[in-house]
Design goal:
Chains A, B: One of its GO terms (molecular function) is DNA-binding transcription factor activity. Chains A, B: InterPro entries: HTH_LacI, LacI/GalR-like_sensor, Lambda_DNA-bd_dom_sf, Peripla_BP_I. Chains A, B: It comes from Streptomyces fructofermentans. Two copies of one chain form a homodimer. The longest helix of chain A has 17 residues. Chain A folds into three domains: about 45 residues, lambda repressor-like DNA-binding domains (434 Repressor (Amino-terminal Domain), Orthogonal Bundle); about 130 residues, Response regulator (Rossmann fold), CATH 3.40.50; about 140 residues, Response regulator (Rossmann fold, 3-Layer(aba) Sandwich), CATH 3.40.50.2300. With about 350 residues, the first copy, chain A, is α/β, with parallel strands linked by helices. A six-stranded parallel sheet of chain A has the order 2-1-3-4-5-11, sandwiched between helices. A four-stranded parallel sheet of chain A has the order 7-6-8-9, with helices on both faces. Chain A has a two-stranded antiparallel sheet with strand order 10-12. At the A-B interface, helix 4, strand 1, helix 5, strand 2 and helix 6 of A face helix 4, strand 1, helix 5, strand 2 and helix 6 of B. The first copy, chain A, binds a DNA duplex (30 and 30 nucleotides) through helix 2 and helix 4.
Chain lengths: ~350, ~350
DNA sequence: CAGCTCGTGGGAAACGTTACCCATTCCATG
DNA sequence: CATGGAATGGGTAACGTTTCCCACGAGCTG
């Protein structure tokens, strides 16, 4: 019943012996490096297959690459992030790289722990999704290892960025609601206090986009923002505040789908129905929004494209570390569902 | 504008020089190993802090441990899995271990790719959540590296398992519905065809539990199972089949919350309301179920406990590889919400 | 005081892979 | 036929850490 004495891993040396060549030769074949004849390649490949050899990443790491890419996600629960991850993994699918995710990165401290751990493990590249760390830490990381920052505006000479145009996204919503005849359109935002990153966060961009679009439509006086947080709880509390106004809004633009879920709850408690009494929109087009019984108008960020772009930029930077940084900005699209309707006369 | 010449990492040699001791000594301090006086410990610790030294996991891996735990998740989108992950990461929080997730493991082939990659990276332990690979592959893996399998029944002399009692969970549902006066209780299951794993999968356990509980309540003749899949689509199609019956069920036990979402859709199309016309239950108690506008009666699996148990067993096995394997079975609880109501007379 | 043991510290050889550089062969060129 | 260069293959020293051992001295025991 004892497990068989754990057999030693097949190494490059075993392959070399089996194929009757040097370890150098095997290494060259593995990396498609220059200096190996087709005949030798063939011979080595056969030995590799026969022995079932697999390169040991830890050993490779000691000499350079580990062929591992790390993705830091602030929260696996947010259904928007898997799309990004899929975009990244798809891109790396046919390469030797393996993508690994760091879990539980809520908050600056946890974020630092995970990213440090990734550096310690010799990862070849990092994709940081919506990080909350200060810029200085991001740049520190980017100095150590090729890095792409996703979902955060602003640019750095150290890392590439990929983000969706949140200003445009907010405008899509406001225009849609205004076109339906709404004037009192309120917004629930995520309160951002940290001055070092305030301008870079998507949430502040969304509220800025809201403000601009309201102005553009001549609704500047109707601008009404409640600051809570991008959580269900935040939506619930925000909606309660809005419903307590003397002049209630006729439409609410929640900063994220999560927030909209909380708003729905508050509205249900107040016996108000959507969209008859109040129109509601979310942001991120998560799977919640698509549920038929919720059917929330939302903004789609094309998570797959975001991920794919991040992966592309990262691979570029791994190949050519010195190249100037790039900022990719993607355009969101509006998904109209049943939670928005013309304003009551 | 050029990044500063990438500074070399601080190594154990630098620390040794700075503290005026040997590298061996530093290594001992790092691992709390025997053979270092308190005085030396103190001296080395100070140097480590001063230089900001961090051990390089890749190099450690070459000689033994990498202090990395891999979790394989079949699908990040399933809101049930994050609870498990949280349970695991919480357990490892105060240790030197770092948990990393493998993404995109849908299907046997992808699963094998990810697990192989984890082995190649010298991970110290693996937690496989609801794997679909055949037992032989799981045992092969477990031979290479300590492994815990989560959410799959049956036991092996090679790996530990943690699972929720799905038979008991299904019984909770059936009893709840029967107590409400329902007799025609139908079940939508995930069709399992692979004979090698059929008895081990949670889905088959759930339908078995359903059958038994129906018998127990004297409702054997009302047993009505539709086989589709554990997806929203599967729920939609399954519900359509059930609604086409001559004698429609008065309650539907969907095998997972996802399935229930699809059922809701089909019911809405058929202009049937929940729970007035039909009672509906899910399984897994995902965040969907808790949404107020859905409010689905479901079974909670205590994902955190599952994760914590898996972590504990894994750490045990890393410390003592030879010990006999353990099977942990946890008890689910019923969460009653508004989607179930007494059967119409 | 000889012979042990115990506590403390270090030397050096791994671990598996890659990168640098050199050696050999072969062929084309003058 | 001598020379040069390209093509091919290999020797070997790293990379950063751990582990096995050995050395040294102090404090015991008989």
């Amino acid at each position: 019943m004892e497990p068989p004495a754990q057999s030693r891993r097949v190494t490059i040396v075993d392959v070399a012996r089996h194929a009757q060549v040097s370890t150098t030769a095997v290494s060259k074949v593995l990396r498609n490096a220059y200096g190996a004849s087709p005949a030798m390649r063939e011979k080595v490949q056969r030995s590799i297959a026969e022995l079932g050899y697999r390169p040991y990443a830890a050993a490779r790491g000691l000499r350079g690459q580990t062929y591992t890419i790390g993705i830091m996600l602030p929260d696996i629960r947010n259904p928007f992030f898997p799309d990004i991850v899929d975009g990244v993994t798809d891109w790396f699918k046919d390469t030797d790289y393996q993508v690994l995710l760091g879990p539980g990165c809520n908050g600056e401290e946890a974020e630092a722990r995970v990213t440090e751990a990734m550096v310690d493990r010799g990862m070849d590249g990092l994709i940081l999704v919506a990080p909350v760390s200060p810029r200085s830490h991001l740049e520190h990381l980017a100095n150590l290892v090729p890095t792409v920052v996703v979902g955060r505006h602003g640019h750095s000479p150290r890392y590439d960025t990929v983000a969706d145009d949140d200003i445009a996204g907010a405008a899509l919503i406001v225009r849609h609601l205004a076109d339906l005849g709404h004037r009192r359109i309120a917004h629930i935002e995520h309160l951002e206090t940290d001055p070092t990153r305030i301008a870079e966060m998507p949430n502040t961009q969304r509220s800025e986009g809201y403000r601009r679009a309201m102005r553009e439509r001549g609704l500047a006086d109707e601008t009404d923002i409640v600051s809570t947080s991008y959580t269900q709880e935040g939506g619930y509390l925000g909606a309660q505040q809005l419903l307590a106004r003397k002049r209630r809004p006729t439409a609410i633009f929640a900063g994220s789908d999560f927030v909209a879920m909380g708003v729905l709850e508050a509205l249900a408690e107040a016996k108000l129905s959507v969209p008859e009494d109040i129109s509601l929109t979310g942001y991120d087009n998560t799977s919640f929004a698509a549920l038929r019984s919720i059917s929330l108008t939302s903004v789609d960020q094309a998570g797959n494209d975001i991920g794919a772009n991040a992966a592309r930029l990262l691979l570029d930077r791994i190949t050519e570390r010195g190249r100037p940084t790039v900022q990719v900005k993607l355009s969101p699209t509006l998904i109209v569902r049943n939670s928005t309707a013309p304003a009551a006369r």
